[in-house]
Amino acid sequence: MIVEHLSLVDFRNYAAAEVALHPGPNVFVGRNGQGKTNLAEAIAFFATLGSHRVSNDAPMVRDGADAAIIRARLAHGERRVQLEVQLNRQGSNKARVGGAPVRTAELPRYAQVVLFAPEDLQIVRGDPSSRRRFSDQLLIQRIPRMAGVLSDYDRVLKQRTALLKSARARGIRGDALSTLDVWDDKLVSLGTELIRARLLLANDLRQPLVDAYTSIAGSDHQPQLEWALSIRGADPEEGSDTEVAGTSAGELEEQFREALAARRAAELDRGLTLVGPHRDDLVLRVRGLPVKGYASHGESWSVALALRLASAELLRAESQLGDPVLILDDVFAELDTDRRARLAELAGRYEQVIVTAAVEADVPVGLRVQIVRVEAGRILEATDA
Which one of 100, 148, 213, 267 is separated from 109 by 20 to 30 angstroms, measured CA to CA? Predict the structure, then answer.
């Protein structure tokens, strides 16, 4: 897959911008805060339906505007497709494919992007929500309909939690809240599908993760990943990290219902939904130890980068769209010379690579093919290096 052209209106610090992109490496160069990462963020939105920097869409709309528009022309071999999304500061976003309105959740069917940025250190060092977000954004690209499952699960979770808070305020305890059973059924159905998809994804990422880590770090520290599930007693929010192997959908559903029944009194007491995929964690290890709290800075960087490269390899192996677009956002300045060279070699194997850098010299020479200079929300020039 190739992004041939990107157009922005009222997106971040861009009142309007047009930029042509080419197969192979493309490098956006500019001082910090000029808008390089905004271009990368806009391209990635079509694939992940979100930002790697913020958890909601409003900050991506330029100050003073009610909506932002991102348009991109993609090439899949000889086929061209025009994608458009309107990000509204209030209300639902709108999308078009080839000029025809579609649900926003349809966009990942046409675009696959893997973006690595310094913020990805939060995947390995941050709280469980960062790892859930990484997994779910990859799930959406791998199985686009999961965008709907995730949206429906979040809606049911909010409604169920609102009911628990209302019951808590009214002093309802025990089995007196019969309407909770209806929301339990919906939560279990959607939650089981999400848990199952996450487990399968983790299983399929294991070998690509090992391969990518070894390529980047130059050594095998036995990186591992596996889900800790709240339906089996794990709760990262409360310091429990019981590990769980994959199980069948039927077993997961039964475990989910049993866990909800066991925690109902505690949920009513706290006004919170304490069981479900929103409480799970993706446990990462190197050398048999958790990355969070034990890995060195270099190891943490290598794990985070390996997760993204493993994602790209998984999508490449399964996709009908060709290679995903690989975006390396302000990454090379953070890497030592050896890791820079190894990453540049790996990145060069993809159909299209987009790199952002504050200093052009930080980017390995082999990737400095097409240079786009950015200043204060303006595209100054595009030149061949």
Answer: 213
285 within 8 A of 223, measured Cβ to Cβ: yes
AA letter at 255: Q
Tens digits of per-residue pLDDT, 246-263?
A: 478 889 999 999 999 999
The 10s digit of each residue's pLDDT in 100-141 is: 999 998 999 999 999 999 889 999 999 999 999 999 989 988
Domains of the chain: 1-112+322-385 (3.40.50.300), 118-318 (1.20.1050.90)
- Nearest Cα to 58, choosing from 105, 12, 6, 120? 12
Amino acid at 86: Q
**Beta strand pairing call for 67-76 and 24-29:** unpaired
Q: Which two tokens stand for residue 103?
A: 């649900």
